[in-house]
Structure prediction request, 315 residues.
Amino acid sequence: MNQMPKTFDRSTEDLGNSIHLEHVNVAIPDQRIASLFYGAGLGLTRDPFLMVMDDNMWMNAGKSQFHLPTGKAQVLRGRTGLVIEGREALLARLARVKPHLADTKFDFAEHNDYVQATCPWGNTVRVHEPDASRFGRITLGIPYVEFDVPVGSARGIADFYRAMIDVPAEVVNGDGTTAKVTVGKSQHLLFRETDKPLPDFDEHHVQIYVVNFSGPHKRLGERGLVSREDNQYQYRFRDIVDLATGKHLFTIEHEVRSLTHPMALRQLVNRNPAQTARNYSMGHDETTWAMEPMHYDDQRERLRMAQMAAAQKAN
Prediction:
């Protein structure tokens, strides 16, 4: 008897035009202090190849990065989500650097779903354990950046990204207070409405890679929204507006790169923060940023087969 062919919901794999959120950029006044938080505390890795002077530092987090140019401190109006495996080890690292950051805004607290850490200048990072149902196969990376936005703006923001950038965007939470925008595989920009006063925009930015590079540029340009022409492979926009009325909704600079950009999707080095000079083991210097092959889409079947084999062996 012929079995019916398996069917799939192919739309679940649609990313739209943006395929990767590569970096979050906030200026920091002191590289040494930043290294304590991002490197020793969170366990991330300074890029060994680029930005090794004292005017900028890039911290690798899986396939994504924090860009930390030296300058007046910038604070993202919201929070950056991180996936880092090993909560107990993370808490131990953060506790270890706490005395060294005593005179800063550094803080951290454990919650049911995440560990919230505040950088020495007030940026909020929420660190989650890997969870395939929420963050795909990411075990180290940036799955989301969440922004606080004015009340009544979420729906217009979702409409803006769908029409201007050609990415999936929807209003979630049932009450229509959060816009969820897909910018990469298991990566999102979240815009969560709040009635709290918001600080002025201080020039921090996020960077995305897009497949159709000229389309958004043309649409943004027709509305006067391209804010900077960096080079052949990169441009920027910052103002998100209501497409029907032209009303300003929110400002966050986007660095938009083409897939022909010389640094597009370059491989990043990620150290294993558990490796020290005291416990060194050859071959364990690096950590992986994705789940092992056993966590692919056949994991349930593999588990079932293993259980059957174990049961047969027991009998």
